[in-house]
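A further point concerns the way the authors explain their paired sequence and structure data. Since the whole study asks how a given chain folds, the encoding of that fold should be made plain. A single example would do more here than another paragraph of explanation. An entry of this sort, consisting of the sequence and the corresponding backbone structure tokens, reads as follows:

_____
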Amino acid sequence: MNMQSQLQAAIAAAEKTLDDSSVASPVRGAANHDDNNALTTGTQNTAVGQNDDDQPNWQPVADVVVPIVSKAVKITNLNEKAFLMQVNRRMYSPYMHDKEESINFGAGNVTKHLFEGQDNLVKETNKAFNMVYKYVNDMTVPWATGVRLLKAELYLEVSTEFRNLVGVANRAVDKLAANWDAEVQQDYNRMLRIAQAKGKPNIANINDYPDVQTLRSKYSIGVQFMPVPTADGFDPRLGMTEEHMASVNERVSDAQANVAKYVINQLLEPMSDAVKKLQVNIGDKGSIFRDSLIDNMVEVADRMGRINVSDDPVVAERIKDLRSLVGTYANNKDVLRNSQSVRTKAVSQIDNLVGQMAGLV
């Protein structure tokens, strides 16, 4: 059997598997659009490709999906199952305000970009610091500006990896400091070439670059773990008023509701990207399929399942739905790459789930 025949056989087998699997109806009540474009949902599983006319029991989504926006998500004992995590990070900024050029410009500030490009140790060091920040954001959910909510059971894992990444970042600072004079000279020469080309010699200024001690002082990163506040957790000697207690309860309630919205929005982003990409017919411009399209959905479903501190059953069910949906496609990426019919099915299924989730935020 030649490669073409093997591919066709694989596609046929995968299509049959997808037809017979739960992916054909990844969630109970998958959303569809009737002839009037009204969003509706079914009370029984529906195979992709069937017409709405074949399903007599359609109801509006609002009648069967419990909203999570209209009231605060119920989270019990949040202070016992999560911590607050605040990362304080400082980095050297390669952007320098040019006072003279700003005056000459006369219509705003002019900023010079030192160490432009990616092939330099400043960008390498800043990237290492950004990786610490990204990791923390990936493993937590928002609480307030600059403060994240960390699931208690992830504390050991996150704190250990945080220290590892901080070690990488600090070693990058050491490497940058050890090579600072050479890095400065290389970038200053670049600025000289720009200055000569523009006929503005003041653009290149060696004083724009800090000395190595000052450079080191511009880099730091630390973390603080704090308990989630509760109205009854304050020392009574502080004289907490009813207004203060109500304010604390309101903050916790708002944060709890925002956890659910955040998780759903994180799930929606890669799904919407997948729908947009897979809607392009095979052979048309922009139709190239990359595995990351499915991998991103798998990753976000797994991550949200781990970091979610919401007790809301709707949120948990939507995470489960996405895991179930992308699980089969994750094992049939070549079919998505080569079969238009499978792509069409995937678009319908993912879009249905997007419709359900979008109604929750």
